[in-house]
Design goal:
By secondary structure, this protein is α/β, with parallel strands linked by helices. The protein has a single domain, classed as Rossmann fold, CATH 3.40.50.1970. The protein has 6 helices and 5 strands. The radius of gyration is 18 Å and the shape is globular. The protein binds 5-O-phosphono-beta-D-ribofuranose.
């Protein structure tokens, strides 16, 4: 008898074994936000593993991911989720790899639900929580990069240059009159 989809064993996950950083999100619908984190990792040449891992729809995969993150020695996990956003907190429970949580804006509560779900962790299991939306995603990546740069002089120089360009752009701003 052919096993039903429900009975069949899932394929083992295939990970990027060069990754220093993991980027996960609860749904492909989070990508519009999370791409802002990935763009920065690419800009700074930080190798990453990217995937959808849903805490609620793929709980066993999430556990496998947490075990892999520890085994791989990831330096950080950037985890985005919206609504009842349990993915960052559950990953923080599954691995000691630092988790950087990104609240994705939800349709009905504008991401305030996501923010509170991610930020209100119990003592002992921290998630560094960023702003709702694309700025939060970008800042999560920049914070990971800043952490990596403390032990990587090349990355530190790139980050200093990035900050200088940002300062120059701000100084060049003029108020439209
Ligand atoms: C969360 O539910 C995801 O992180 C996403 O933000 C939200 C909605 O997911 P979809 O219904 O769009 O797949 O788990």
């Amino acid at each position: 008898m052919t096993p039903s989809t429900h009975d069949s064993q899932p394929e083992p996950l295939v990970f990027n074994d060069t990754a220093q950083v993991g980027v996960v999100m609860g749904s492909a619908s989070d990508w519009e936000t999370m791409q802002h984190a990935v763009d920065l990792l690419k800009t700074f040449d930080v190798p990453y593993d990217l995937r959808v891992v849903s805490a609620h729809r793929m709980p066993h995969d999430m556990a496998e991911y947490g075990a892999w993150a520890t085994h791989q020695g990831l330096r950080a996990i950037i985890a985005g989720a919206g609504g009842a956003a349990h993915l960052p907190g559950m990953l923080a429970a599954l691995t000691a790899v630092p988790v950087f949580g990104v609240p994705v804006a939800s349709r009905y509560l504008r991401g305030e639900d996501s923010l509170l779900s991610i930020v209100q962790m119990p003592r002992g299991v921290p998630v560094a929580t960023f702003a709702i939306g694309e700025s939060g995603a970008a800042n999560a990546a920049l914070h990971v990069i800043a952490n990596l740069a403390t032990t990587d002089a090349t990355l530190a120089a790139k980050l200093a240059s990035f900050r200088q360009q940002q300062t120059d752009a701000a100084r060049a701003m003029r108020v439209p009159t």
